[in-house]
Amino acid sequence: MPDLEFVQTELAGLCLLTPRRFGDHRGFFAETYSRRIFARHDIEVDFVQDNHSLSRQIGTVRGLHFQAPPRAQAKLVRCGRGAIFDVAVDIRRGSPTFGQWVGYELSAENGRQLFIPAGFAHGFMTLEPDSEIVYKVSDYYAPETEGALRWDDPAIGIKWPLKGDAILSSKDADALLLADFDTPFVWDGKP
What we know:
Number of helices: 2
Mean pLDDT: 94
């Protein structure tokens, strides 16, 4: 059994990963990232920064965020505590899946991760209180290149598992609709 299982999603380049856990009476150990294993899956990415975020309340939605070229970011997202519904939307002009989304539950319990290449908008919703998200990025934060799409854009149609009103920042509540967005990303025919 490999130490890191890769599953290609229906959106080219986007992978769901499940690290193998080695456990005993003390807990477990898991290798959550290996450049060598990523290279075996034809993913050459240089992660330069790790980020850690805490969302206190269930129903907190963050996203759908991206950084535009030349500071575009690939991300490797996991949940260190609690649980989230993690979403990626293809925003690559010319992609056969432009505007389509996938979403997966990532939790401390299931250990799953989502690899999101540049060219996708990313967001998540907390499913448990005090959920912590830990993610690697392939470029440094560059506020002049950041952008966001509306989390509830009907043209995208994300089926968020909300049980009430979303808890949002004003930036996310006022983000662009896909129809008003001129994407800086272009699909090159590769994953």
